[in-house]
Amino acid sequence: MSSIHVTLGDVAASVALVAVALAISLWERTHLEGDVLVAAVRAFVQLTAIGYVIKFIFDQDELIFVIALIAVMVVFGALTARRRARRVPHAFWPLLIALAIAAVTTLGLVVALGVFPATPRYLVPVGGMVIGNAMTAAAVALNRLGDEVADSAGRIEATLALGATSAEAVRPVARRSLQSGVIPLIDSTKTTGLIFFPGTMVGMLLAGAAPVDAVRLQLVLLYTLLGSVFTAALVAVLLARRNFFTPAHQLRESAIAPSG
Amino acid sequence: MLFALDDLRASRGGRVVLDRFTAEIAHGSTAVVGPSGAGKSTLLRLLNRLADPDAGTIRYRGRDLREYDVLALRRTVTLVPQLPCLLDGTVADNVAYGPRLAGGDADVERALSLSGLGDGFAGRRVGELSVGEQQRVMLARALALEPEVLLLDEPTSALDAATRTGIERTLLHLREELDVSYVLVTHDEAQAERLCGRIVRLP
After folding, report:
1. Which residues of B touch A172 (CB under 8 A)?
2. FRET label pair with A192: which of A47, B121, B178, B192, CA 20 to 30 Å apart?
3. Which residues of A touch B75 (CB under 8 A)?
């Protein structure tokens, strides 16, 4: 595979497109200029920093650094997702455990099946992708769970009043929350190649890889993502739903208080 | 004596609604009356442990409420909430839900007929029912558990006068037909007199 070299000048040139976004935002008074600027600057700083971190880890070629990086990503992912799940009491731990399980099982599986060798060059990018997507799915699922429990409090209590356990009472709500977490990825997986080209494939084609190789690697990653996203959303919902209830199967009053 | 409530304090939404409250509730039919915010619904929720008091004790048939298995207690002392909130599906699905949780079968037809719903309701989807019919299904699914006590939280507050009269007639009929006690929360003194042998007043 030939590799391409992108200069800082090339990056600077692509900023022209950010300027287009800013111009449109100002023109249409969407008041998103600040957000666009912050997003563009953060992307530059964070990606540059992680670029050096990855370079360091590749140079060291030690698995312990990979594990440390993945652990840090899991913690930051859980902290970020927690902000989306404000209405879920103590959402951090369910999210942390969900992301950790999703990362360990999917990475463990692809290595065990011999899809990728257990080296930093494979584990770091795949781990980052898995955790990023798992975080989004878990955050969306718990965001929905918090809203749904508050909205369905009457129905949940009516079900508890018939002698249902808290798990039984919250089951319909938990199911809908899980669906909302994973449906975006299922939809984008369905349309992949038709109305959008996923990032890995684009990256490999740009880097000069053969289209068939690019497609195969993309498929491996898509399937890995499907598994990890389902795992993360399921574990997050299963663990978080308990936080709404007392051990005596009572809906906690704090859990149904309006947010904000 | 069914319930002995001793020196209860309970809060709802961060506000103390019951303070140093002591009362007894006997077999038969008891109304709990009082103005809005007096803690009527809160009191009902304490009786089947949907909530616990901040202080004080509640005894049911002489035993502290917390000594009972909470799920079994709720099948014995069953709450019918103020507003109908049924599960998606048919009337029969809803009526059979509680007994099925306990691993048993439900006599759906009997529960429906006790609640004043005739044949043909079992297969109806709950979305097609009027509010009054939904309220009767709420009653039926509580009765399907064959409880010792029904806790009725303003069961007619969402209904028009004609429907209310129908539900009241059903409740009076239940009192004669079944060996079931009920505790009825209402803000309507006249309804309390019509339906209940005893009245507990909240300040």
Report:
1. 87-88
2. A47
3. 162-163
How confident is the model at residue A1, as a pLDDT? 45
Which residues, other chains included, contact A199 with Cβ-Cβ below 8 Å and sequence gap of 6+? none
Q: Tell me, what amino acid is at A235?
A: V
Radius of gyration of chain A (CA): 21
A94 with A233: CB under 8 angstroms? no
Distance (Å, rounded) from C-alpha A89 to C-alpha A252? 10
Please write down the HEC assignment for all residues of B96-115. HHHHHHCCCCCCHHHHHHHC
Q: What is the pLDDT of residue A111?
A: 93
Q: How much is the pLDDT for A200?
A: 85
* Cβ <8 Å between B74 and A172: no
Q: Cα(B202)–Cα(B155) distance, rounded to whole angstroms?
A: 18
Record the tokens describing residue B57, joined without a space.
């004790």
CA dihedral B159, B165, B166, B168 (to 10 degrees): 100
φ, ψ for residue A66, nearest 5 deg: -65, -45
Considering CB atoms only, which of A161, A253, A257 is closest to B74?
A161
Asked if B78 lies within 8 A of A162 by C-beta distance, the reply is yes
Distance from CA of B48 to the nearest CA of A (A): 8
Q: Where are the beta strands (DSSP E) in B29-124?
A: 29-33, 55-60, 63-64, 77-80
Distance, in Å, from the CA atom of A228 to the CA atom of A131, rounded to the nearest integer, reads: 8
Strand partners, B24: B4
Token pair of A133 as six digits: 């997507």
Partner residue opposite B145 with nearest CB, options A160, A162, A257? A162
**Per-residue pLDDT, B104:** 87
pLDDT of residue A259: 42
User: What is the ipTM metric for this complex?
Assistant: 0.93
Give the pair of three-digit tokens for residue A171. Answer: 């089951």
Q: A106-162, pLDDT tens digit by residue? A: 999 999 999 889 999 999 999 999 999 999 999 999 999 999 999 999 999 999 999
By CB atoms closer than 10 A (0-12, 13-18, 19+), residue B176 is exposed
Q: Is the pLDDT of residue B200 over 50?
A: yes
Per the listing, tokens 């704090």 go with A254
Task: Based on DSSP, count helices (H) and strands (E) in chain B, helices before strands.
Answer: 7, 9
pLDDT tens string B174-187: 888 888 999 999 98
For the cut 50, the answer to whether the pLDDT of residue A28 exceeds it is: yes
